[in-house]
Design brief:
Elements (H helix, E strand, L loop, with lengths): L1 H30 L25 E2 L6 E7 L4 H9 L1 H8 L5 E7 L8 H12 L4 H10 L1 H4 L6 H10 L4 H9 L4 H13 L7 E4 L2 E2 L6 H23 L1
Parallel strand pairs: 2-3
Antiparallel strand pairs: 1-3, 2-4, 4-5
Length: 235
């Protein structure tokens, strides 16, 4: 009887250990691969360091027109712009030298998976592939936005665009870009951004979401308006 009691005790200890492992796996799945939860803070709280808004850009710093997009990776309209319009902008407008295109993060509170998507895209940017990774994330938005742990899918996209996945995973799990992402989002709040996508042309907000042809007209008009000011500055 004593031996049977010891066997039962060992059995229950093993069950308890397995239960703890199971709970751990559930928690791990809920917060992602090895990384802490990402919490969108209140911008009214003290800022995280002295970071200012800074995001990926395409085009020369000397371009007379800067268009800034505040975007959220889980936003359907942002995905539409990224898939249908941004590639044409990067291929047809940026090479003219008239346009500098800038992406700034604005993950929305109601989008649970958006913060991890922003971190992943920013980590891809550290390997020089922000635009490729952002396109892949947007292109597959319907596949991951309701996933309890989308990191595995993001790593699949990373392989497809030629990233070093091991390095990317370390960056993502350490949440390295998150302070900058928060700074970008808070800069948008300070400018009155309350939805995505929101666009600014040389610091002036656009009232709607332009098509490629609209952007082309905006760049042409804004660059012509900037030419006299640039000539006067050179005198």
């Amino acid at each position: 009887m004593a031996e049977a009691g010891r066997s039962l005790k060992s059995f229950y200890l093993v069950l308890g250990a397995l239960a703890l492992v199971g709970i751990g796996l559930i928690i791990h799945a809920a917060i992602g691969h090895g990384g802490p939860p990402i919490v969108i803070r209140d911008c009214a709280q003290p800022p995280l360091g002295a970071l200012t808004a800074r995001g990926p850009t395409a085009g020369p710093d000397s371009a007379p027109v800067t268009i800034t997009e505040y975007a959220d990776f889980e936003c359907p309209m942002c995905a539409r712009v990224a898939i249908l319009t941004v590639p044409d902008i990067l291929q047809r407008l940026v090479p003219t030298g008239k346009l500098r295109w800038q992406f700034l993060d604005f993950p929305l509170q109601q989008h649970a998976n958006s913060p991890l998507a922003h971190v992943t895209a920013a980590c891809a940017g550290a390997q020089g592939k922000f635009w490729e990774m952002s396109y892949a994330i947007y292109q597959h938005q319907d596949d991951w936005f309701e996933d309890r742990n989308p990191e595995g899918k993001f790593m699949d996209y990373a392989r497809a665009v030629g990233l070093n996945v091991d390095s990317l995973r370390v960056c993502v799990d350490q949440r390295r870009p998150w302070p900058q992402i928060e700074a970008n989002r808070c800069s948008g709040e300070q400018l009155g951004v309350n939805g995505t996508p929101t666009f600014f042309v040389n610091g002036h907000p656009l009232p709607d979401v332009p098509s490629f042809d609209d952007f082309a007209r905006i760049v042409d008009s804004a660059s012509k308006a900037a030419a006299p000011r640039a000539a006067a500055a050179r005198r």
